[in-house]
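Lab meeting tomorrow. Please check the following:
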Amino acid sequence: RKYLMLLGILVASVAYQAGLKPPGGAWQSSGNGYEAGDPVMRNNRRPRYLAFFYSNSISFMSSIVVIIILLWQWLQKKAKGEWEEQSLRVMNWTIRLDLIALLVAYAAGSNRGWKTSVYVAMLIIAVLGYFAIHMTLARIVCQLKKSKERPAV
């Protein structure tokens, strides 16, 4: 739970900062149809900006949800049993959504050309593939350990 709280706070901070200072910067002065403070990327590369904006928003909000659930559990101190297990499962999936949304926001905001976009997409696929392989191998090892611990009937 402490790691979930740490991860939730860290991702919320990163997403909040990215929202305040979006990739590509902001217009410094008004004129030519632009307003000072508006994101440059919103006008120059609208689809990429929308991908960044929505994924960054999802990342920020899912981090806040995890933080609120954890704080609520710590304040109640009565959260035991099945509800506690279910809420932990929900928080784990929310953190996964959170990190994937942060990856998409990074990919949308960190590059300019399609070639770089393909490289970033391939990197994301490689990271998620590594994660899937690691989780599958960990599950197999745990099942083998459990089968060795059980006595034969």
